[in-house]
Amino acid sequence: MKKVSRFPEVPPSSIAWNGHGQACTVHLVVLVRIKAANIADVSNRRDAMLRPALYFITALLVFVNAPTSRANEVKRVSVNGTELAYVEVGQGEPVIFVHGGLQDYRMWLNHLPKFAERYRAIAYSRRNNYPNEVDPDGMPDGAADVHGEDLAALLQALGLSKVRVVAHSSGAHVALFFAAAHPEMVVSLVLNEPPAAGILVGISDSAEMLKAWGAGIAPAREALKAGDTKAGIPLFVNAVGGPGAYERRSDADKKMNADNVASYQADATTKRPRPVFTCDMAKAIKVPTLLSNGERSPKFFHRIMDQLEVCLPNRERIVINGSSHTVPSENPDAFDRAVLAFLAKH
């Protein structure tokens, strides 16, 4: 006897029945092939008994057929003469996550599931960062203008015309250049402490701060220039995040830092001029922007955020308690709550 008369997509051999003539399970391979279950077409008694199973099938199909259901599945796309790795999870309007220095897409893995409940969440690794091809003589981390054009090309390759951007540190610097050059591609921005030192040039009382900042990171740069990454990485992290910042990091984060040191070695040795992001460029960014600060971050970053708050015409600002520079990792729950609330409005 044919068990399913109104659902030809489901072969009877793929359904397990109990002693009362009710469907219990359906083979997973069949679920992958089904495009939709016309539950409204259930009419007779036997088909009515199938209704619970078909509702279950339909729910599973959302999961099985979702193209972005595994955040640990690394994909790759060619842009601007290089290959960039990315992961994605969830469905809906796209949100792109941009990592900071000594990091890669993995810094966002613990954040993506929360965002995937509402959005298509995409995190990628920038040029010269793991697991992409890396080279100490390659693209510097600080080449925010180049990385910004890579981001635009990545979105075009993925068929995305407008996105929300969530970015940290040097990745937020990238996001500023991207938004200034491609305003038509941006819905809103979330920027956590970009090292946009250029915006302070000419600002009263900033010269001494910039000089002190340069002196603070100089030992890390010298170590990296000499190839001493074992010393250079902790020196840099502690200069940016404050004393003990590196020691507080997890083993996984320390490994990620080591995996991505090439772009910082390139930063220490490059003769390429560092791009300068100006207040005039910021004034041209009209989209809603959330500025995020760590409560315990160095004054250098707070000063930059102060000036961005002056220059950006459509901005909000938050300070995350208990955090230094790497807010998304140091207080992820507070960061995610604030960002999700902002994105819900913008």
Automatic annotation (TrEMBL):
Signal peptide: none
Record keywords: Hydrolase
UniProt-listed InterPro entries: AB_hydrolase_1, AB_hydrolase_fold, Carboxylesterase_BioH
SUPFAM superfamilies: alpha/beta-Hydrolases
Any one GO MF annotation of this record: hydrolase activity
A Pfam family assignment: Abhydrolase_1
Domain named AB hydrolase-1: residues: 94-332
Protein name: Alpha/beta hydrolase
